[in-house]
Design a protein that fits this description.
Elements: H1 3-8, E1 13-17, H2 21-27, H3 32-53, E2 57-64, H4 72-88, H5 90-95, E3 99-103, H6 111-124, E4 131-138, H7 140-154, H8 160-166, H9 169-174, E5 186-189, E6 208-211, H10 221-232
Parallel strand pairs: 1-2, 1-5, 2-4, 3-4, 5-6
Helix pairs in contact: 2-3, 3-4, 4-6
The structure holds farnesyl diphosphate.
Length: 249
Amino acid sequence: MNAKEINDKLPRHVGIIMDGNGRWAARRGAARTNGHTEGLKAARRVVERASLRGIHYLTLFVFSTENWKRAASEVDFIMSLVKRHLMRELDFYRENHIRIRHTGDTSGLAPDIIAEIDEARRGTKGFDGLQVILALNYGGRNEIIRAARRFLRQTAAASSDEAAAALTEEELSRCLDNPDVPDPDLIIRTAGEFRVSNFLLWEAAYAEYFITDKFWPDFSIDDFDAALAFYAARERRFGANSESGAAVQ
Ligand code: FPP
């Protein structure tokens, strides 16, 4: 496949499970926190590359609803890294017209982190370039539950039977954290694990998966380009078969 063919079949939305920061550090006899610091650098270069390549949406799995089980010192370190990142990178986002958004359960986040996310969101709201969605305190099941609760609160059904009948895939999708964001086309996972890890469970129903053995801090822009080339070569069927003519792309 040549560069033009790959560019003609770019995913609109890419999600990334940035795994392997801890193992990257362990291989070097370094503290896990060093792995996260390097992981942040990798995230920045991938954001830059995705913007350059004309990707519309990039969701980064920064912190899961399960990551609270880690040592408090590691959790604090990741949160402070995110905070510093949001404060420092605003100029970079403005220059590149990148819009920052969030997905996840804000009720579990500290007020200073929420304030920082809100400021980044507000400061970049009008930008029409790449939309970077930070999945922070995010879990797919948690998002689906919150969406179902939103639906029930909003629905004017007279009975539970009426509410049950009104609940469709479209209605639930409308109650997700960012209903205007299209489903991810491509999910990248580093560190060689073949697991979904509660990432975009609802949205990734038909996503293609690109899994690499590389640890996240080693993930390069060439690796990102390789994932885009992999995606371009996939035949997406969305449940149809190749003869039915229902394949998209
Ligand atoms: C996985 O490595 C990574 C995380 C838990 C998230 C940390 C992510 C970053 C620091 C990047 C932050 C990016 C932005 C844009 C704010 P792991 O610790 O699970 O690795 P392991 O499985 O090898 O232990």
